Amino acid sequence: MWRGKIEELRLTRAGKDWIFVSDAHFTGREPEGMETFLSFLNSQKDRMDHLVILGDLFEFFFGFKEPFSRAEPFFAFSDYLPIFEELRYLYHQGIRIKYFEGNHDFFLHSFFSKQFEMEIEVYPEGNEESLGGKRAFIAHGDLSNLSEWRYQAFRRILKNRWTYRVIQLAGPHLSRRIAQILSDLSYQKYHTTVSSEPPPAFKVFAHRKFLEGFEIVILGHSHFPEEVEEWIDGRRSLYFNVGDWMTHRSFLRFTPPDKFELRRWEDGET
Q: Among 92, 133, 196, 222, which residue's beta carbon has the most beta carbons within 10 A?
């Protein structure tokens, strides 16, 4: 019955905005930051049709599916609950939610349905969407730089069923400690030097997608908000990097049929 009601609500939202966010990297230990994000979602709910999360919403997010011992709770991410409860509320308001797994997200294909009875569309990699009748490629973006072959190989090791089984057996507490160590090492390598220019690899990747026939490319992962326009064979093509919620509070709004706004949100705005 509730599914029928949700579909009815979705019909009333057709034509409203798509909101894209990426890279909040919540750990559960920053209540003020999470509250700001919840305020943002609440401010957008009446004009939003789709919420698209481009990965790494949390610092570590794995689709644990079984209890680990009688002493451990079934739900492994209790400190993330405010975010999940808000997503469930939005879902029951008829808002479609899509989650594109990032490099901090693992094995989420059935997590939301089993834990919260939400039918969220989960994409382990990129996916094609139609935005205003135009072909759009959407992904987290961590696979954009083909020259980073070491990372590409490391990702293949992390994102396979054997690693998932090891993480499942290790349980949430040990897995999160290990993930934090790896995250700290990654941050020291890739984010301690602040650049005044966005990484060029993302624009190169978007250009390749334009040559494949896509007219819109939307990515995250770079932590650098960016908007680029290209004209290819007389066709206007747009690349957006949503940036990150963690530092820039940036997001992308798509208002059908063809309006895009890359913005930064200030607490209290509507």
A: 222
Domain ranges of the chain: 2-264
One-character DSSP codes across the chain: -HHHHHHHHHHHHTT-EEEEE----B-SS-HHHHHHHHHHHHHHGGGEEEEEE-S-SBSSEE---S---TTS-S-S-GGGHHHHHHHHHHHHTT-EEEEE--TTEE--TTHHHHHH----EEESS-EEEEETTEEEEE---TT--TT-HHHHHHHHHHSSHHHHHHHHHHHHHHHHHHHHHHHHHHHHHHTSS--SS--HHHHHHHHHHHHTT-SEEEE-SSSS-EEEEEEETTEEEEEEE---TTTT-EEEEEETTTEEEEEE--TT--
Q: What is the CATH number of domain 2-264?
A: 3.60.21.10
| Mean residue pLDDT across the chain | 85
Q: Hey, CA dihedral for 216, 120, 261, 131, is it positive or negative?
A: positive
Q: How far apart are alpha carbons 229 and 232 in whole angstroms?
A: 10
Residue pair 138/54 in contact (Cβ under 8 Å)? The answer is: yes
Direct distance between the N- and C-terminal alpha carbons of the chain, in angstroms, rounded to an integer:
33
Q: Which amino acid, 20? A: F
Cα(165)–Cα(151) distance, integer angstroms: 21
Distance CA 156, CA 125 (A): 12
Question: What separation in angstroms does the CA of 241 have from each of 119, 137, 141?
Answer: 26, 12, 9
Q: Are 50 and 98 in contact (CB under 8 A)?
A: yes
pLDDT band at 224 (very low <50, low <70, confident <90, very high): very high
Q: What number of other Cβ atoms are within 10 A of residue 65's Cβ?
A: 13
